[in-house]
Specification:
It is built from four helices and 23 strands. It is mainly beta. The N terminus is likely disordered.
Length: 437
């Protein structure tokens, strides 16, 4: 599909700086902030758009939202994401990774915050544009939520879901509450173009080397990430690296709060901080495998838990089954026989989303693996990629507990007793685990 404003479209749009008056409220672990006043920066002297602004993306879905029964629908959550490399928000930390990734991913089968790798941004961060926008609306009359997206200029509206019901998707840290947020966001009169232009001069003072890719997250409303706070009365314009392809360890975290209703003045309050993108070591604990096969393909499904082990000061060790921060690209997978002989990986028969794993047909030249959600939905595939290197079909997705690994092999193979093992892709990461088929 064509991307809006693709190819470095130069914008002569005039913007006014907005007053920044609100401090970032963060419930995050491992993040520290220093509130400071910023000055001008020579970076990004011109505006380069890549995708719509907040108002433009919202306008693209509004007509469809109004036609959905159960309204009136009031917006309460906005996320615009401009990532300079492939990015998955699921690598960030929700209050419950298992619940959020598995339930939200199951309910919304398109490109959302919870599914797939988000598109790459080629504009400038001061433009306030993004190739990915996601909105959440609330109906007080039916107590339902509705999700809508604009992905590379293409709008999509999903069916409503009950608000905060068991088994549904509700990742938001809803303080002061969904209804209160939906009323508050009616006062937003400043577009993201103004907010980003106001935030950039302050944030860019502490900008690291241009060779380091970042992701800009522009949000309104409650936070859904335990590592990222929220702003009451304004935009949170955050610059992060966690969740980007190839990024791990300690990273810079920058942010600014921009008033959403007063587009005058030039005062900027911003935050300079840092965070650890991941917290190894991870242990992958596999459950009992189950095999199905037909005349061509065998599918061996192994549910798994992702575990951290906390070592207390008294010497006790406690497992934690809801960790965050492990991305697929951090892991390498190997299948060996019971005697330790390596079996050749092959190209995956399902490089993108399929309705059922039975559509992942065996490759006669070897095995490949598929990661499924707890409900059996396709998330990613691992095997030989173009260029002859083993890797992932979707560049960045998260690995969390209650997902399932499916080993796909020719039905002529006898995989009983074979061993699947996971190892890290670089020396700074620690992840391990193995299962006998």
């Amino acid at each position: 599909m064509d991307r809006m404003s693709r190819g470095g479209l130069l914008s002569t749009r005039r913007v006014q700086a907005a007053v920044v008056v609100v401090l970032v409220v963060s419930a995050a672990i491992g993040i520290y902030w220093t509130v400071k006043a910023g000055g001008p920066h020579s970076g990004f002297p011109t505006l380069i758009d890549d995708g719509p602004s907040y108002f433009e993306a919202l306008a693209s879905v509004n007509a469809s939202v109004r036609s959905i029964s159960g309204g009136p629908w009031a917006i309460f959550s906005v996320y615009g994401i401009a990532a300079q490399e492939p990015f998955s928000p699921n690598v960030l930390s929700y209050l419950s990774d298992n619940y959020t990734v598995n339930n939200c991913g199951r309910l919304f089968d398109g490109v959302t915050l919870w599914n797939g790798t988000l598109p790459i941004f080629t504009g400038t961060f001061n433009s306030g544009t993004a190739p990915f926008w996601q909105f959440a609306f609330y109906s007080n009359s039916t107590n339902e939520d509705l999700i809508a997206t604009n992905v590379e200029g293409v709008p999509h509206v999903y069916p409503p879901e009950p608000n905060q019901a068991n088994g549904t998707c509700y990742p938001w840290i809803a303080v002061p509450g969904t209804l209160a947020w939906s009323k508050a966001l009616t006062r937003v009169s400043v577009d993201s173009t103004v907010a980003a232009a106001a935030a950039w001069p302050s944030v860019s003072v502490d900008w690291p080397q241009p060779s380091e890719p970042f992701v800009e997250i522009m949000s309104l409303g409650p936070s859904m990430f335990s590592r990222i706070g929220y702003v009451t009365g304004g935009y949170l314009v955050l610059f992060d690296r966690c969740g980007l392809l190839g990024v791990s360890g300690n990273q810079t975290l920058l942010g600014a709060a921009v008033n959403w209703s007063n587009p005058s003045g030039q005062a900027i309050n911003s935050g300079l901080g840092g965070t650890n993108c991941d917290a190894p070591p991870y242990a992958v604990q596999f459950s009992q495998p189950a095999e199905l096969h037909d005349s061509i393909t065998s599918w061996t499904t192994i549910p798994f838990q992702l575990v951290w082990y906390f070592h207390a000061s008294n010497g006790s060790v406690a497992p934690y089954y809801d960790p965050w921060g492990l991305a697929n690209w951090m892991t390498s997978w190997n299948l060996t026989t019971s005697t330790g002989q390596a079996l050749p990986p092959a190209g995956p028969g399902c490089q993108s989303w399929v309705a059922a794993v039975s559509e992942c047909i065996a490759n006669a030249s070897g095995w490949y693996a598929v990661i499924l959600s707890a409900s059996g939905a396709w998330i990613n595939s691992y095997g030989m990629q173009p260029g002859g290197v083993a890797g992932w079909s979707a560049p960045v997705t998260a690995l969390v507990s209650q997902q399932q690994l499916v080993v796909v092999a020719p039905s002529s193979w006898n995989v009983t007793g074979d061993r699947m093992a996971v190892s890290p892709t670089n020396a700074t990461l620690r992840v391990s685990g193995s299962a006998s088929l």
